[in-house]
Amino acid sequence: MEIKGNELIASVSVDNLDWQEIGKSETGGKLPVKVRIGKTDNQGDNSDDENRGDRSRCLVGNFTVLGDFKNQSLSEAAEQYQYLKEIEVQVHYSIYDGLPLISKWITVKNNSNKAIQLNSFTSEILAAVEPRNDQMELDAWLLPNITVNTDYACGGADEGKSYEWTKDPLYLTQIDYQRRNPCLLVVKPEYGPEQSIESGSNFESYHVWELIHDNWDRERKGLALRKTWRTIAPWLTENPILMHVRNADDQSVKKAIDQCADVGFQMVIMTFGSGFNLEDVSEKNLSRMKTLADYAHSKGIALGGYSLLASRRVSHKDDVVMPEGMKPRFGNSPCLGSEWGQNYFKTLYNFYEKTGCDILEHDGSYPGDVCASTVHPGHKGLADSRWEQFQTIKDFYRWCRSKGIYLNVPDVFFLNGSNKTGMGYRETNWSLPRAEQEIIERQNIYDGTWEKTPSQGWMFVPLVQYHGGGDAATIEPLKNIYLIMDSDWPTFLEPEFRHVTVGHSFTMHLKHGIW
Q1: Which of 25, 163, 387, 457 has the most CB atoms within 10 Å of its CB?
Q2: E-only strand ranges, 207-347
């Protein structure tokens, strides 16, 4: 920025050689006292302008103010910002033996005597070359041969939320004439984090893992990715055999525990629609669940149940407030930073601490919805809403991992402690005739294990009617269990058995047919 007379002129350059004037403003004879670098509206605040243009990224490499300053003003400014010398930014790398894998993150240490505000950060900029030297339409680019994962992932993926492949303005020799090739990896949160770092405190970014592939062979890439998962999240190699019991009364749960112990199953989950209510905070419910968990443990069985988080409507004051033109990922969702959200997670901690249950099937897990509310106690506004909500669920899942609680979560929270997600299926497929289920299930397993280990995914074995289809869709009569043995079991993929309780004949089939 340059001050000329009564005008303030703003210019921009990508190479520090060619400068382009982008705007000017009358100063009225007054010197500027503040400059905001980064996202801003026409009032200098960090909100979106009403007249939105095309979505893009802007990288500010350095900032310079040109013009005359009075010595007194310069001295005062220098004194005012001395505390910035006490802000320390560290860049961390982890490089793995036996894998072409690098992890990276940053920490910000505030050694000054005042709080600072971190509006945004970029923890990685990786310039790659385009993998295919031809001009393509914008929706058909082939991205560089690098698999990117972060532990800031939800809603089925992290691309867009925590990183993106974007255009590289400094790559002047690329083949695409308009230099639109998305070959620049930028790791930064889409929103925020808008975090205050108090004096003496530290801030840590999320971690990014970059897996560099040496060729495009799908199986070779899959082998490298599966080894990566086993290396950076070894808990996902746990592969217990579990039963979903569809009635949560004492008699049904104990019968399922007994029969699972008889055949070598390891877990019982009181599934959705069973009557299990994790949000019932009464001492009667907590005492009953502890008694059932103690009974299960005496038989060597882990016990837990189902809870729904998102994809539900709670109340007008507690649901996410989406920006104009945006909708929640699942149509409805509570905000994890609302009063309800805070109480919900207190309930989860309390339930598992007091009952000793050791499984949580957490459905509709946080999908990354933002929230523009300014009255929710868990976040200040839109800019910090995703960061704060993600910290809430991340902290809980990591606490579960530290307690040995098994997490069945239909989402990609692997790097924060979850064990499994769906291998790849539509639930209504299990209302098809058994023979058609077999065909689809084989294809789901084949497709699903390119980028996941078998233990990362689950499938269904509908012993009784699930979404419909009647007798033709269910495994009972139990002699048809051999159909399932031929598909799920040899792949070491966990089939989730769903039944009210397990019958005696089923016990005999498993004993004699598998073990």
Answers
A1: 163
A2: 208-212, 242-245, 267-270, 302-308
pLDDT in tens, the chain (515 residues): 788 878 888 888 877 778 888 888 887 777 777 777 777 776 667 776 667 777 666 667 777 776 665 655 667 777 788 898 999 999 999 999 999 999 999 999 999 999 999 999 999 999 999 988 766 666 678 999 999 999 999 998 888 899 999 999 899 998 888 888 999 999 999 999 999 999 999 999 999 999 999 999 999 999 999 999 999 999 999 999 889 898 999 999 999 999 999 999 999 999 988 999 999 999 999 999 999 999 999 999 999 999 999 989 999 999 999 999 999 999 999 999 999 999 999 999 999 999 999 999 999 899 999 999 999 999 999 999 999 999 999 999 999 999 999 999 999 999 999 999 988 777 788 888 888 888 888 888 899 999 999 999 988 777 777 778 888 888 777 665 554 544 444 444 555 665 544 443 333 333 322 32
Residue 110, judged by CB atoms within 10 A of its CB (0-12, 13-18, 19+), counts as buried
Q: Which pTM value belongs to this model?
A: 0.83
Q: Which two tokens stand for residue 468?
A: 């419909």
CB proximity list for 186: less than 8 A, separation 6 or greater: 57, 122, 124, 125, 163, 164, 165, 166
CB neighbour list of residue 278: distance below 8 Å, 6 or more residues apart: 305, 306, 307, 347, 348, 351, 360
The dihedrals phi and psi of 121, each to the nearest 5 degrees, come to: -150, 160
